[in-house]
Amino acid sequence: xxxxxxKAFLAIAEAKTFTAGARRVNVTQAAISMQIxxxxxxxxxxxxxxxxxxxxxxxxxxxxxxxxxKILREHDTALSEIAELGGAEHGRLRIGSASAMFxxxxxxxxxxxxxxxxxxxxLSVSSGTSQxxxxxxxxxxxxxxxxxxxxxxxxxxxxxxFSDEIVAIAHPTHPLANERFISAAALAGEQLILxxxxxxxxxxxxxxxxxxxxxxxxxxxxxxxxAINQMVENNLGVGMAGAKTVSKEVRDGxxxxxxxxxxxxxxxxxxxxxxGGYFSPIAREFASLCKQSFVERxxxxxxxx
Length: 305
Prior knowledge:
By secondary structure, the protein is α/β, with parallel strands linked by helices. It folds into 3 domains: 3-83, Orthogonal Bundle (Arc Repressor Mutant, subunit A); 87-161 and 268-303, Periplasmic binding protein-like II (D-Maltodextrin-Binding Protein, domain 2), CATH 3.40.190; 162-267, D-Maltodextrin-Binding Protein, domain 2 (3-Layer(aba) Sandwich). The chain contains 12 helices and 12 strands. Strands 3, 4, 5, 6, 7, 8, 9, 10, 11 and 12 form a 10-stranded mixed beta sheet that branches. A two-stranded antiparallel ribbon has the order 1-2. Helix 2 crosses helix 3 (29-43). The longest helix has 25 residues, at 59-83. It is globular.
């Protein structure tokens, strides 16, 4: 078995077609088809059942799938360890972020500090939902990611960086603006602007409404918290956000917040990586810089209260 064959096999298994798999590994469809034929000849069994629209992985393919992922992770780890022999300033780190706010406000400074210590490093950043980024870590596509906690995957380890209580947010002219709390039923009846499905925070909000036996009136689903805040600031509905993260808007008179009766929803941001995987010097430095950045952010937020 060759590494390129295993990469081709994994790409097709995840993309479900030879065409999409070929694009993932940057080869032609003819080339990837040949690699799979060679791999199937070696194992002696078909790995995929071909259909007109997609491929279906066979029992033999399922058996190979997790082993292929493990082999490729070990392969990447070996390359990273060898690359470090070239000097401490080298390294590769592929970062994912499920928090657009963090990626905008804090990540640039962290990466700048990381580049100073690792001037010849290879750094990349991608975005996605928490679940999508965890899947990328599992598949060896990224090394670490900022995700909403908890992560229900025993193969992933996380470090808590930031915690914030979820509150309801509204325009200061809202009829209930002077109230301190809002009930689940009253909140569900508002024109709600929430985050997109697929993230932990939205799941916790949905679970809260389900437990309260009320059906929320969701009029918008947006991918960025900043967009939700802006919509609420323009009096287009009621949203939900972290109390700490909207403290400035509240002080400036742009938003008001309500505690949610019966809800204890905590948004927690953590740094995730593969449990037991290779924790390279650049990844360790990155984790340290992240923890330092969030300690400083907490101090700033407390000072502004």
